[in-house]
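User: Sequence recovery, please. Input:
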């Protein structure tokens, strides 16, 4: 199994930046496709960004494309989400997830493991 722990969330002013981290332990980190999801109060869980195992191909939600960047440091077993030009609409709990699959990485059901989440709040 894989254990995931997110960190780096906090309060930031609109237009600011944050970098989220997801530390993984257990199975070999590089064997998993990784993704970031978020959930705001009263809303469904939403795909934010994903990065495939080995090849490192990335995919982003249209709402964050050009502002967010996902990356992975396999030697450190860590996933990152660099968040720039933050908007109040980005306010949510952000979750790190791991999948043994490759296809449809934007679909929550494709993921096998989830972190506990980290709160991101963007003030206007």
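Assistant: Recovered sequence (124 residues):
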């Amino acid at each position: 199994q894989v254990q995931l722990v997110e960190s780096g969330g906090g309060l930031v002013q609109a237009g600011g930046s944050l970098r989220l981290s997801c530390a993984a332990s257990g199975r070999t980190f590089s064997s998993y496709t990784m993704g970031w999801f978020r959930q705001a109060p009263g809303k469904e869980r939403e795909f934010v960004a994903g990065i495939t195992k080995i090849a490192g191909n990335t995919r982003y939600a249209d709402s964050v494309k050009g502002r967010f960047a996902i990356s992975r440091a396999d030697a450190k077993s860590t996933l990152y989400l660099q968040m720039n030009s933050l908007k109040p609409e980005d306010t949510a709990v952000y979750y790190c997830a791991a999948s043994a699959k490759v296809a449809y990485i934007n679909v929550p059901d494709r993921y096998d493991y989830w972190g506990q989440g980290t709160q991101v709040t963007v003030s206007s």
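The chain has a mean pLDDT of 93.
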